[in-house]
Design a protein that fits this description.
- This protein is an alpha/beta fold.
- It folds into 3 domains: 87 residues, Helicase, Ruva Protein, domain 3; 174 residues, Rossmann fold (3-Layer(aba) Sandwich), CATH 3.40.50.300; 95 residues, Winged helix-like DNA-binding domain superfamily/Winged helix DNA-binding domain (Arc Repressor Mutant, subunit A), CATH 1.10.10.
- The protein contains 16 helices and 7 strands.
- Helix 10 crosses helix 11.
- The radius of gyration is 23 Å and the shape is globular.
- The structure holds a DNA duplex.
Length: 391
DNA sequence: GATCCACGGGAATACACGGATG
DNA sequence: CATCCGTGTATTCCCGTGGATC
């Protein structure tokens, strides 16, 4: 992606000066193929995966580290490379019916943010392993599992699966995950990725290795920001001093740093500037709620929930006095064809998962349980821009 | 015809308050 | 005084239905 982005940037060069050259490179939810300065972690992951190069499966493992430490970036990049490598050696399984004779394992990356059921999990696995398209309707979970068993059973080398964002899903917890793996052939090795410390996690009873990812150091984070800016923004748009300011503020969290850069860029763009200023950055900081959830989580929500959120972020404060009022305001929009009940349920469900937060209103009017309003737990400008880009 | 899942809607439960009760 | 009860809201839970797809 890095090289593509650089090429695209040149292609899109116009006479008119503009700030953003490539939104995709700038988006805080996209990962680059060569994360900066993460050499040591790559080495430790490769140490763990070493048996693969002799055609063997590594044991199970757990990768952990704090929010924004680059776990997903590293694992997606590494697995993409490994997968490409093993495909080039024609060692993967090609169709569900006819398996070639693999000499090294296949690699799959699954994100539990996007796979919300056992059915979807099997589908994701099957999709990673088979060329044919995988049905998402009309076939039973059992059937899907059988197909997967067949394919894996016929594969000599097996598969290494990275499962990202464990312990973030309400639908699939550690128990469900272990159940799924238990029902599959043993030539499957998994690499779970999460934020929780290994000692407080049941999955580690099934792992031989744990690999820790440290939060970013400030200098590294500055590099990350400068690299992103060089990919996504016009020349000289972000000066080093501002990148430093953002890195300080983000305190090692690359997600927050990149999201802040993204929001600041949006401000500068609306103001028709071709470089970022102090005030762009400052107002980006202000837009972050006290504790912000990952934009990746927001953007992994089902389409209609995102739609409701998209409407929500455009409401005035007085329309958000209570959940009922918010529901009413959103439903009043003619482009919303969801029922009031559903809109309201969505709001409550999203509050439950932490994407928004319910705060009780202090105005006790006497009668009944006091209402609460929902507050965003993510920077709205970032979501607005990313959402609109995808439509 | 079978399947999954998103929706819709309603039942059950929680909470806050004031007033009645022991 | 502490507890219970009734009422009115808010919130959570749950299940049937139907669309889309195989």
């Amino acid at each position: 992606m890095d090289i593509d982005a650089r090429i695209k940037r040149r292609q899109h060069r116009t006479d008119e000066p503009r700030l953003v050259e490539d939104y995709e490179s700038l988006a805080p939810v996209s990962h680059v193929s060569e994360p900066s300065d993460r050499g040591p972690v790559f080495e430790r992951l490769l140490d763990h995966l070493d048996p693969v190069f002799d055609g063997q499966l590594p044991p199970n493992a757990y990768v952990y580290g704090p929010f924004g430490s680059g776990k997903s970036a590293i694992v997606t990049a590494l697995f993409a490379h490994l997968d490409r490598l093993s495909t080039e050696n024609s060692s993967v399984i090609h169709t569900s019916t006819r398996a070639s004779t693999p000499v090294s394992p296949a690699f799959a990356y699954l994100d539990l943010r996007e796979l919300a059921s056992e059915f979807a999990l099997y589908g994701g696995l099957l999709d990673a392993v088979v060329d044919d398209s995988v049905p998402d309707h009309g076939v039973s979970t059992e059937e899907l599992r059988e197909r997967l068993r067949d394919v894996l059973g016929g594969s000599r080398a097996g598969i290494v699966v990275a499962v990202d964002h464990v312990y973030e899903s309400d639908d699939i917890g550690a128990a469900e995950l272990l159940d799924v793996f238990a029902g599959l052939p043993s030539n499957l090795s998994w690499l779970a990725v999460g934020r929780n410390r290994p000692e407080e996690v049941a999955l580690t009873e099934h792992t031989a290795n744990t690999i820790r990812v440290e939060r970013y150091r400030r200098e590294t984070l500055v590099d990350v920001l400068m690299t992103r800016a060089s990919l996504g923004l016009t020349q000289q748009a972000l000066d080093h001093e501002l990148a430093r300011r953002i890195a300080d503020w983000a305190d090692g969290n690359a997600h927050h740093a990149l999201a802040a850069l993204f929001v600041a860029t949006d401000r500068a763009t609306t103001a028709n500037r071709t470089h970022l200023t102090e005030s762009d950055v400052a107002s980006a900081f202000e837009e972050f709620p006290g504790s912000s959830v990952s934009l990746g989580r927001v953007l992994a929500l089902p389409a209609n929930k995102q739609f409701v959120l998209r409407k929500l972020i455009d409401l005035d404060a007085d329309e958000c006095a209570s959940v009922a009022a918010t529901t009413e305001a959103i439903s009043a929009d003619p482009s919303v064809d969801l029922s009031r009940g559903t809109v309201k349920r969505y709001l409550y469900e999203m509050a439950e998962t932490g994407v928004v937060e319910r705060v009780e209103s202090e105005s006790a009017t006497g009668k009944g349980r006091p209402p609460s309003r929902v507050e965003l737990r993510f920077p709205p400008t970032a979501f607005r821009r990313l959402y609109d880009l995808n439509r």
